Amino acid sequence: MKPWILGLTGGIGSGKSAVAQCFIEHGVHLIDADHAARWVVEPGRPALAKIVEHFGAGVLQADGQLNRAALRELIFKDAQQRRWLEALLHPLIGQEIVEYLAKAESPYAILVSPLLVESGQSKLTQRILVVDASENLQIERTMQRDQSSAAQVQAILDAQASREARLKYADDVLVNDRDLAWLRDEVARLHNFYLTLKGGQP
Predict the structure, then answer these.
(1) Residue 30 bridge partners (DSSP)
(2) Nearest 5°: CA angle at 76, between 114 and 153?
(3) Across residues 53-82, what is the average pLDDT?
(4) pLDDT tens digits for 129-142?
(5) Mean pLDDT rounded to a whole number for the chain
(6) Residues 19 and 176: beta-carbon distance below 8 Å
(7) What CA–CA distance (Å, rounded) separates 66 from 59?
(8) Which of 22, 47, 113, 198 is the most exposed place for a label (fewest CB within 10 A)?
(9) Which residue ranges make up the annotated binding site?
(10) In whole angstroms, what is the distance from residue 176 CA to residue 180 CA?
(11) In this structure, CATH architecture of domain 34-105
């Protein structure tokens, strides 16, 4: 039987990765949209050739890998270029995700995506779990993890969907504001519940 798909999302610093890791420990197959986004632009893949053709060789590093920082600079300042890039990459990323999820062998599989709602990837899922944390906690965690300033983290938060918007789409919410042992118990509880679902719905 084909696994049903759980969408796992949450803002920066909410603890999505820790939650994802707990599900992996239960043997759940999982794909991260960020990883899929990296695969589609690897050297030798058609997307990279198109990006170079469009933006020029300045977006490549010496070893032929995509220079993300250079590309980010180009599209950050120009909404039209950003839209061009998204139109190229989003369908390819979607295809990678669909192909990977189709191979999953657990009763349900997980698509982890920070932009699950904004990118339309939620259409691939039958149920959505939102990892939630207060904005202060998100800022504190991200500053520790990325050595970034509060202002930098705030800018990323402002670019992502608001907590309210994300929670509107949630079938399940995991408020991640305690320790890892508690988080593991919560994920185990959710996992056992998900195993009872057919097609993601009770």
Answers:
(1) 110
(2) 50
(3) 92
(4) 999 998 899 989 98
(5) 92
(6) yes
(7) 6
(8) 198
(9) 13-18
(10) 9
(11) 3-Layer(aba) Sandwich (3.40)
Each domain of the chain, given as residue ranges in start order, spans: 1-28+108-192, 34-105
Residues at the annotated binding site for ATP?
13-18
Query: Are 82 and 75 in contact, with CB atoms under 8 Å apart?
Result: yes
CATH of domain 1-28+108-192: 3.40.50.300
Six token digits for residue 58: 């300045």
* Mean pLDDT of all residues in 55-74: 93
Task: Quote the tokens at residue 56.
Answer: 């020029």
| DSSP string for 58-103 | GGB-TTSSB-HHHHHHHHHS-HHHHHHHHHHHHHHHHHHHHHHHHT
* C-alpha to C-alpha distance for 158 and 152, rounded to whole angstroms: 10
Predicted confidence (pLDDT) per residue in 78-130, tens digit: 889 989 998 999 899 999 999 999 999 999 999 999 889 888 899 999 999 99
Structure tokens at 55: 């933006």
Residue 13 φ/ψ region, left for φ over 0, alpha for ψ in the -120 to 50 degree band, beta for the rest: left
| pLDDT tens, residue by residue, 147-178 | 888 888 888 888 777 888 889 999 999 998 88
pTM of the model: 0.85
Question: With DSSP H G I counted as helix, E B as strand and the rest as coil, what are the percentages for the chain, rounded to 5?
Answer: 55, 15, 30
| Strand pairing category for 108-112 and 4-9 | parallel
Burial readout 54-67 (b: 16 or more C-beta within 10 A, e: otherwise): ebeeebbeeeeebe
